[in-house]
User: Fold this.
Amino acid sequence: MVVGAGGEAVCQRCGTGFSAVPSSCPFCGHLNPPDAESCDACGEPLSLVARVVDRQKAQPSARRLEQARALAPMLKAEGEKASQARMAVFQRAEDLHREQVRRMSAERAKQDRRLLLAAVAAAVVLVLALAAVLAAL
Assistant:
């Protein structure tokens, strides 16, 4: 076979030309252009090699499955460890916040006591001044 002037295949012996034959999809029967790699109707690969490769991609190998199963407990343990570490950070932040609130409450109570003492002292001074004024009359 040789390529003829029109791009079709030509027999070297008799000169008979062969035009490209559309390929039929093995799954749905749709006729596809000769150079198509997958079916225009259903998307399935038209060549045997492409079908085998697609199946290999779709089905995990037994070795990969074994590896994934072997890694699962370790990944789960790492996830749990990371989760506990994050929880410890949150707990520490909560403890610091509570300590800060406790200190602020104690400071506020101290200020309230000082203010009450100042108010009582002012009231005593006022009563004494009023008593002195009344005694002078």
About this structure: Residues 102 and 108 are 10 Å apart (CA to CA). The chain has two domains: 2-58, 74-137. The mean pLDDT is 85.
